[in-house]
């Protein structure tokens, strides 16, 4: 057993750490033993655990957990990038959220992480041409988590959505790598046009709570959008914007705002 775990740790350090933390959690809180075993320790891979967790959350009278599990298993087998992105998301949440103390927590308890993984399956279905199933995943994700991400949106790795209540990301939106956002963020359109109509968020961007970014505009790499802002115009890289409508109020203040998670606006920075 020790050799097997050492091999897992070598090949998949994120999953090895989750399993170790799961065993610790069972010792610390035996009442969670069944849940943790079914969700984590019962599965040989992170793909299996993700498929189980997503299907359990999204199951309803309209579609059973078993069918949803088969869909998720198929997606993870067909596209290894899905689970690689999930690993990056787990690390991102752990590094950026001060309330996260274990890799285990996003997988088990954080709806922002879980909602993003549901979107990733929906996006795979969309790219496979299975649009109605993709819409079903979107609908259930919105109903269960309060996170409404169109399956055609393109979202990178290392995403952290903190609290994740009332998140809306539209069909033609693009979100880069290592982006952080808080609750009530909208990446929306400005009318009924059917072409490319949603924002393009660069790498390393931090979007504060309640911010709305509207229209086919770009928010440059490593910029900050202050809480409550309404962004209607392009944002250059490495800037901070704030207000309604949002205006540039200074520099981003650091090289990676999405990682530092510093939302304060200081004079001249």
Give a structural overview.
With about 270 residues, this protein is of the alpha/beta class. It has two domains: about 15-145, serine acetyltransferase, domain 1; about 155-269, UDP N-Acetylglucosamine Acyltransferase, domain 1 (3 Solenoid). About 45% of the residues lie in helices and about 15% in strands. It has ten helices and 15 strands. A six-stranded mixed beta sheet has the order 3-6-9-12-14-15. Strands 1-4-7-10-13 form a five-stranded parallel beta sheet. Strand 14 and strand 15 (about 245-250) form a beta hairpin. Helix 4 (about 45-60) packs antiparallel against helix 5 and helix 6 runs antiparallel to helix 8. It is globular. The termini are far apart. This is Serine acetyltransferase. Pathway: Amino-acid biosynthesis; L-cysteine biosynthesis; L-cysteine from L-serine: step 1/2. InterPro entries: Hexapep (IPR001451), Hexapep_transf_CS (IPR018357), LbH_SAT (IPR045304), Ser_AcTrfase_N (IPR010493), Ser_AcTrfase_N_sf (IPR042122), Ser_O-AcTrfase (IPR005881), Serine_acetyltransferase (IPR053376), Trimer_LpxA-like_sf (IPR011004). GO terms for molecular function: serine O-acetyltransferase activity. Belongs to the transferase hexapeptide repeat family.
Total beta-strand segments: 15
Please identify, by name, the CATH architecture of the largest domain.
Orthogonal Bundle
How many discrete structural domains? 2
What share of the residues does DSSP label as strand, in percent? Answer: 5-15%
SSE class? alpha/beta
- Helix fraction bin: 40-55%
* Arithmetic mean of pLDDT: 94
């Amino acid at each position: 057993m020790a050799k097997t775990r050492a091999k897992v740790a070598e090949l998949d350090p994120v999953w090895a750490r989750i399993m170790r933390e799961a065993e610790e959690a069972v010792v610390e809180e035996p009442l969670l033993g069944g849940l943790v075993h079914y969700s984590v320790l019962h599965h040989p891979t992170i793909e299996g655990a993700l498929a189980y967790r997503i299907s359990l959350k999204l199951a309803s009278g309209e579609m059973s957990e078993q069918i949803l599990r088969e869909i998720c298993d198929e997606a993870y087998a067909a596209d290894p990038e899905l689970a690689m992105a999930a690993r990056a998301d787990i690390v991102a949440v752990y590094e950026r959220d001060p309330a996260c103390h274990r890799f285990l927590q996003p997988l088990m308890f954080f709806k922002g992480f879980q909602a993003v993984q549901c979107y990733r399956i929906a996006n795979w279905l969309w790219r496979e041409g299975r649009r109605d199933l993709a819409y079903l995943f979107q609908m259930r994700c919105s109903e269960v988590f309060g996170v409404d991400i169109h399956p055609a949106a393109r979202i990178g790795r290392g995403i952290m959505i903190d609290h994740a209540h009332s998140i809306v990301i539209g069909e033609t939106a693009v979100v880069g790598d290592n982006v952080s956002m808080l609750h009530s963020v909208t990446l929306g359109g400005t009318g009924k046009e059917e072409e490319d109509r949603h924002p393009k968020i660069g790498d390393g961007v931090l979007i504060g709570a309640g911010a709305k970014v509207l229209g086919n505009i770009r928010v440059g790499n490593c910029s900050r959008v202050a809480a409550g802002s309404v962004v209607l115009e392009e944002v250059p890289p490495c800037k901070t914007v704030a207000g309604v409508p949002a205006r540039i109020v200074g520099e981003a203040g650091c090289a990676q705002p999405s990682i530092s998670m510093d939302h304060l606006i200081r004079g001249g920075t």
